[in-house]
Amino acid sequence: MQRTLKQPIKITGKGLHSGRKAELRVLPASAEYGIWFRRVDVTGRDNLIPALFDQVSDTRLCTRLANDDGVEVSTVEHLMAALAGTGVHNALIEIDGPEIPIMDGSSDPFVSAIVNAGLTELAVPVRAIRILKPVTVKVDGFTASLEPADGLEIDFSIDFADQAIGRQSKQLKMSNGAFVRELSNCRTFCRRDDVETMQSSGLALGGGLENAIVIDGEEVLNPEGFRRQDECVRHKMLDALGDLYLAGAPVIGRYRGNRAGHRATNLLLRELFSQPEAWEMIVCTAAQGKDLPGANIRAEDLARA
Questions:
Q1: Could you report the per-residue pLDDT of 165-181, keeping only the tens digit for each?
Q2: Marked catalytic residue, from 17, 78, 235, 262
Q3: What CATH number should be reported for the domain holding residue 50?
């Protein structure tokens, strides 16, 4: 069955790029509502933005959505991953600014708030997008693809010259709370030189060691180091799940990413939906629903190794 929150949640934090403090509220919504953002600080224009792939207006550094009136909300991927990974199918997200708070650079604060608020089932089955044939995009040497599988699987590889990261690969089936246990607390990462360049250009003004892993060659500048040895590739998988949820429904298929990012995943969804024979919308059986991300999550899953 489709799910929504039992009660609203409120989260406050600063935006990564603007440094501006923002407050967001995630509100319960009815069946078939989907995921929508509402900019409560905007008046005189349409302030509702659907969380859909064809509303993506920019993928540099983060995923930004915009409606036809030019009202935007950016850095949506970590919150979208939290909604996908906890099985929230319907929600209205109210925010008083243009950027979702970065929090600690992961999905963990959003996931914890959702799990603690609890979910309620709605009397409507989950609809999902089942991949019927492989679809691939290649962007600037990066590759992203979707292919048929029984549930949602993510297979990701990265390769960085920085010795602290290097080559990392990981595969996961996103069922039985795997996202919450394995990915949700993995933080975004960047090079120290990139941070300095962005901030000199007026970007990443809210960035720091409290909300990102900062790498300098073979050194991790964060005093606590990595949360997991392969935290970087795990965060890329987190981003991929959030960007995939902009399909408008859970995906049943295998996502493969090789050095892929927000742009590659968005282009992949655009390519998928341009090929009607490559996918179908299905009404999930009870068995299929149990294999979707978010099914069978327990509060204990938040206590990770």
A1: 999 999 999 998 899 99
A2: 262
A3: 3.30.230.20
